[in-house]
Amino acid sequence: MPEQDTAAHRRTPAQEVADFLRGRQEQIAQRWADAALFRTVFTHSRDEAVEAGRAVVDALAAVAGADTVEDAESGGFHIVRDQLARTAAARARAGASITDISREVDALRPPVTELLLAEFPDAPAEHVRECATTLTVLMGTLRLVVLETALSEGEDVIHRQRLQLLEVATPVIKLWEGIVAVPLIGTLDSARSQVVMETLLDSIVEQHARFAILDITGVPTVDSLVAQHLMKTVAAARLMGAECIVSGIRPAIAQTIVHLGIDLSSVLTRASLADALAYALGQQGADIVAREGAGSEHR
Amino acid sequence: MSGAFPSPYGGPSPYATPVPVLRLGDVLLVTLPGDLHDGTAEQLQQDISDTVARSGATGVVIDLSGVEIVDSFLGRVLGDIAAQTSLLAARTVVAGMRPAVAITLVELGLTLPGLRTALTTEDAMRLLGDQGPTLPRPGDSRQERV
């Protein structure tokens, strides 16, 4: 490219790099296809890896051409963001840490630098250095974009799992005609207890339940906040015309509640879920008795 | 609720029609509309106590199943109605409160401790028809709590 060489001195290093990337796209993509990042993700065919590499080179050239080598939000990256996210996610699934991914993206730089140096064999040293610096900055920005997408991918996963946990963790069980129970398991925070309250109240309407049992056997600790949530749920259920029973308070938790000075006197409590059920049945006029010859009566 | 602001006409809102108080034997049935103005609520409070005093009703059922939005004012009015009627020897039962309304009242700190509640108006009528001792509400069996 002799014409470009003569014009080179009037152009910014970034545009120079952009031209170089466009010109050598195929070579760079071929070399990247052998780099760890692309090789481990596109295991099926090398062509796919080369294709992915070409897309990334294109994006880099667009970013360099727009003279925004330091801007991770640059428009050029938008096109490959999805692909980078998929690549990073695939590496993360394969067990690579953020550091590993960062190192692998960094490993994409040396082959390009080599090609760049070979591109200007007789240009002034200062000019070559400028281009190399620009390229390094550009690759640094690429690394930033990859890590950013990888991290936001992780956040999405956490958010999704949190929602799943909310759904999974609050089943409302119909124990008997007019009696529903919620076995609470795990730590209760504000978001979860809100979900518990809503699902319980909805099921009270749906099942036409006069009694609702909150079983907290699976709740490891009760602090004043959790107690407050429980009392709110009980009060809301009462307003709707259902009676709420809290069961399964373990001795240690009972001690904590007393130590904290929490007044649960407005809440009806029973030692176990069975006791709560027996109470609710008794209030409805039903009774559990053993058949003749069967095991002992359980009340 | 619009009644919280002074009406441009200086009186109660012209759109506020009074809530009917129906008499079923010894029980008064009041079904609250979805859009209850503050003025109407106050009017209703008076109507109920007047009717109880005149007719000697022994129970009042307030059906809230059509109410989707509640504020602290309405919560207070409900409590006041219960207190008034109990002075007149009648029991008030609030029936059919929706979950969202119950949550709102609790979040507002209005747990309405003196108020009797029922899931439906049918349950409420049954509750009132039960002339024996009142059903144990939470708090009656406190001796057994942990």
TrEMBL record, chain A:
Keywords: Phosphoprotein
Domain STAS per the UniProt entry, residue ranges: 169-280
InterPro entries: Bact_StressResp_Reg, STAS_dom, STAS_dom_sf
Pfam annotation, one family: STAS
Keyword Phosphoprotein: yes
CDD domains with a match to the protein in the record: STAS_RsbR_RsbS_like
Protein name: STAS domain-containing protein
Taxonomy of the source species: Bacteria, Bacillati, Actinomycetota, Actinomycetes, Kitasatosporales
TrEMBL record, chain B:
Xref: Gene3D superfamilies: STAS domain (3.30.750.24)
PROSITE patterns, alphabetized: STAS (PS50801)
Superkingdom in the source lineage: Bacteria
CDD domains listed in its UniProt record: STAS_RsbR_RsbS_like
Pfam family, one: STAS
Matching SUPFAM superfamilies: SpoIIaa-like
InterPro entries the record matches: Bact_StressResp_Reg, STAS_dom, STAS_dom_sf
STAS domain sequence ranges: 17-128
PANTHER family tied to this protein: RSBT ANTAGONIST PROTEIN RSBS, RSBT ANTAGONIST PROTEIN RSBS-RELATED
Name this protein carries in UniProt: STAS domain-containing protein
Origin species: Streptomyces heilongjiangensis
